[in-house]
Design brief:
This protein is mostly helical. 65% of the residues lie in helices and 0% in strands. It is globular and about 65 Å long.
């Protein structure tokens, strides 16, 4: 059952020239595209999909496949070309989307934010059980993404308290939340964040989504304003974490939706620093998708919105992400300035007297070095594999690898920085050292459930094989990767 056509067998079809154009430019064969679709479908839990070359040929001839095939094709071509390739860009019909679960231009009001988070988390849990995740979603980018996010800066009202008449519309649990209950909710969020750092996003994503849904149930009950604000803050943190975990396992439209909902919750909580953190996560996703211009807009929104309240550690993190965006845009002067600002601001972090939220504690000296090293590495690629920028990246990345190697709680970050160091050695024409580091990353990748780690590792090894296919260490690593991490295996 390869995702049959939504139209009748006798319907007149014309060749899909738009899909055909993207397909030809991709360099894939029909068999390769079919294999990629099947692999992505397994990642989504859509085990009923089994596409072959004849099915791909029918799509090119004008057949419109049913969901989730259009969304899968959109994601595959987006990743291939480093830009957002929408379903409509492929000449395919997008699934019908209700306003409440599609797009990112949502109302900035407390009750509607609660309703939207509740509906989306419930749909995610239900669709996950049925074998689909977010099949009606599409990524937003450019003005369609940035302009709605700018409304985060508009002054809003305080978190609403559900009135008693509203509360009587449906049965409610008796009593109000106690402080110990609120404390427990917050500590559970901290625990989920620790699990994500140690094990990757694939292990506890559904548990986080379920907890988020429970918090929205509490927000629909009558609560004092102070309690409602704390619950909105918990909802914002959980929604951001659900988005981050979705991003980590390759569910990009789902991740973006959670990030947007998290930003809305942060605004209702009056938590500007948390909102800036959510925007930084959205920026990371845009960098991953090859849209550094959008990433920079999001970071500038984060910086402006939290300029009067962000701690030095949070400001340093935002500068580091600003550097990543400038690197992707090929602007070395501005990138270096942002790197310097990140380092200087981070130096003030220990002098900050106020307690910092748990969500920013990840931004350690190791993380700072990792981000800055990746900025220099990205500059090297944008500048045509520049040895100058590669040499700037090497000592900073080496410091990150050393620090993460001594931190058992952040194994995914350790793997990502090992892969980053492997790419630096490729830039420096040192394939043997690159293969050694990539092999160490493979050892960790087998233990953490992160499609992001797996994808970066496969890409690095493929690049090594392309450029240094006669080096024995590279050949051995390629063979080992095929055994230990076959692409046909279901992603965690």
């Amino acid at each position: 059952m390869g995702g049959s056509s939504g139209s009748g067998a006798n319907a007149e079809k014309r060749p899909n020239e738009m899909l055909g154009s993207w397909f030809v430019r991709s360099g894939w064969s029909k068999g390769e595209l079919a294999r990629q679709v099947n692999r992505r479908a397994r990642q989504l839990g859509a085990h009923h999909i089994s596409t072959d070359t004849s099915r791909v040929r029918r799509w090119l001839d004008g057949e419109n496949p049913r969901e989730p095939i259009p969304r899968i094709l959109s994601e595959l071509f987006s990743e291939r070309f480093g830009c957002v390739v929408a379903v409509e860009d492929l000449g395919l019909r997008a699934a019908h989307q209700s306003p409440s679960v599609s797009g990112v231009d949502l109302p900035w009001t407390g009750p509607q934010t609660v309703a939207l988070i509740s509906e989306f988390s419930r749909s995610d849990l239900m669709l996950a059980r049925r074998g689909f995740l977010g099949t009606s979603l599409a990524l937003s980018a450019g003005p369609a993404l940035i302009e709605p996010m700018q409304r985060w800066l508009v002054p809003g009202h305080s978190a609403p308290v559900v009135s008693e008449p509203e509360a009587q519309l449906a049965p409610r649990r008796p009593g109000r939340l106690s402080k110990p209950e609120l404390d427990l909710l917050e500590s559970t969020t901290v625990m989920f964040r620790q699990w994500d750092a140690q094990c990757g996003g694939g292990l506890r994503r559904k548990a986080v989504v379920g907890q988020l849904h429970e918090v929205t149930d509490l927000l629909q009950e009558p609560q004092p304003e102070a309690t409602a604000k704390r619950l909105f803050r918990v909802a914002g943190e959980l929604a951001e974490l659900a988005g981050w975990m979705s991003y980590d396992v390759g569910l990009q439209p789902t991740a973006q939706k959670y990030f947007v909902l998290a930003l809305h919750a942060a605004k209702e909580a009056g938590e500007k620093p948390l909102g800036s953190y959510v925007l930084s996560s959205m920026s990371r996703q845009m960098i991953h998708l090859g849209r550094p211009d959008d990433a920079l807009e999001l970071i500038h929104l984060a910086q402006y919105g939290s300029r009067d309240c962000a701690s030095p550690r949070t400001q340093s993190m935002l500068y580091a992400m600003e550097a990543r965006a400038y690197a992707g845009m090929g602007q070395p002067g501005r990138c270096k300035r942002a790197v310097r600002m990140a380092e200087e601001t981070f130096a003030d972090a220990d002098d900050w007297d106020e307690p910092e939220p748990d969500w920013i504690r990840f931004f350690s000296e190791a993380e700072l070095n990792g981000e800055n090293a990746h900025s220099f590495r990205d500059l090297a690629y944008v500048a045509g594999r520049s040895p100058t920028y590669a040499s700037l990246a090497e000592p900073v990345m080496d410091r990150a690898v050393t620090l993460f190697g001594n931190d058992p709680e952040h194994q995914r970050s350790y793997a990502l920085n090992l892969i980053g160091m492997a790419t630096v050695h490729l830039l420096q024409q040192e394939p043997e050292q690159s293969a050694l580091l990539a092999g160490e990353a493979l050892d960790i990748a087998k233990k953490v459930r992160s499609e992001r780690v797996n994808t970066r590792l496969r890409k690095t090894v493929a690049n090594a094989l392309r450029d240094f296919g006669d080096v024995p260490e590279v050949v051995q690593l390629t063979d080992r990767l095929a055994v230990d991490m076959p692409e046909t295996a279901e992603a965690g």
